[in-house]
Amino acid sequence: MRSLPFFIGLRYTRAKRRNGFVSFISLASMLGIALGITALITVMSVMNGFQKEVRANMISVTAHIQILGFEKGLSEWQKLMAETKAAKNVIGVAPFVNGQGLLSIGQSVRGVMIRGIDPELEGTVADTGRQMRIGKTTDLRPGEYGIVVGTYLARALGVNVGDRIQLITPQGSITPAGMQPRLRSFTVVGVFSSGHHEYDANLAFIHLRDAQVLFRLDENVSGLRVKVDDVNQARQIARRLQDTLKVDGFVQDWTVENATYFRAVEIEKRMMFIILTLIIAVAAFNLVSTLVMVVRDKHPDIAILRTLGASPGMIMRVFVVQGALVGIIGTLIGVVGGIVLAQNIGAIVSAVESAFGFRVLSPEIYFLSSLPSDLRWPDVWVTAVIALVLSLVATLYPSWRASKVNPVEALRYD
C-alpha cells in the first residue's frame, strides 16, 4: 500500500494525456531544468578554468610566499634563507630586490618595476627560466648590468636583445644643482612572457648584485621568495612561518598580493551561480503550472481513488512523485550534459571556430589558445541538489490542491 502512490505517479508520468498542452509544458519543464543545469555546470567549469590559468600565470612570476623586510630590507638574509628552506612544506627559497624606475630609449619612456634576482636560485621559486622567449636568465651576470624585459615592455620601448637602454631610479644623488636621479645604462639580454599582461608590460629583471648597488641596499635584500609544495595551503604556511621565524619584517602569501583580483573573480562566480540558479528555478516552478493542470485533468481519477479509500495524504504523494520524477529526469539529463560539455568545451569551441572562421579567444588578448575548463565535482553535486530541492518544492502546492479535491463535486458531472 505504501508503494501505491509511487506506481500511480509513475503511471501518470508515462501516460498519454488527453490534454496535449499539459504534456508539452511537462516536457518543457524537464528540458528547462536540464538546460539550466547544463549551463550552470559548464559556465562554472569554464570560470574555474580561467581562474586556474590566470592563477598559474600569476604565481609563476610572484611566488607562493614572500618574506619582506622593511625600508632597509633584510640584513641577515642568508641565515633566514637557510631557516626558511628547512621549514616544513617549503621546497624553494630565493632572495630578491624590488625597486621602481624609468626605462628610456630614444623618445620612449616607461615606468617599470625592477626585480633583482639570483639567476641560479630563481628557478627554485618561479618559472621565469621556462618563460624566456629570447635569451636566458643566466645571461644576467653581476657587474655587467644586463636586463630582461617582458614582451609587451620590449614592444612598447621598441627594443631587442643587444640594445642598450637607460634606467633612471628615484634614489638620487645630491649635487650643487639639487637632487639628481641616478641613471645607469643596461643591455637587454633577454625577453620573457609570463602570459599575464600586467607583468609582461611592467616588470624587468636584473641581477641581484646589480640591484643592490643600484638601490643602495649594500648587502641587504628586499626579501625572500618562497615556494611551497601545495599552493592552496600557502596562507596557512605563511602564518606558520610568521610565527616561527625571527624576521625583522612580515610574511605574506600570493593571495594577499592579488587579493583584489581574486575577490572580484569570487564575486563574479557567486553572482553567475545565482543568476543561472534562477534559470533552474524558473524551469522547476514551471512544474507548478504543469501539475495544476494535471490535477484538474485528473479530477475524476482522484475522486475514484478517494471513494476506494485513498487518503488525502496518499493523493498528495501521487502528485509529489509525478512532479519529482520530472525534476529527477531533468536533473539527470542536465548533469550528464553539463559534465560532457564541460569536459569537451575546448574541442567544441575549436570546431565552431574552424566551421565559422573566427576566434572565440584571441591568444594575443587572453594568452589562451583554447577555452579552459576545470570541472569540480562539488559544483556538480551542489547544482544537482539545488535542482532536486526546487523541483520538490514546486510540487507541494499542486499536490496539496489535489488532496483537497471533493469526490462528490468531481464526480457530479462525470
- Principal-axis shape equals elongated
Number of helices: 15
Rg to the nearest angstrom? 32 Å
Which sheet architecture does the biggest sheet show?
6 strands, mixed, barrel
Helix/strand order? HHEHEEHEEHEEHEHEHEHHHHHHH
What class would the helix/strand composition place it in? alpha+beta
- N- to C-terminal distance: 27 Å
Number of domains: 2
* Low-pLDDT segments, ≥5 res: none
Report the helical percentage: 55-70%
Strand content: 15-25%
Number of strands: 10
Spatial ordering of strands, largest sheet: 2-3-8-5-7-6
| Average pLDDT level | 79
What does this entry look like structurally?
- With 414 residues, this protein is of the alpha+beta class.
- The chain has two domains: 4-56 and 262-411, no CATH class; 71-247, no CATH class.
- It is 56% helix and 20% strand.
- It is built from 15 helices and ten strands.
- Strands 2-3-8-5-7-6 form a six-stranded mixed barrel.
- Helix 2 runs antiparallel to helix 14 (377-403), helix 10 crosses helix 12 (312-356) and helix 10 (259-297) packs parallel to helix 14.
- The two termini are 27 Å apart.
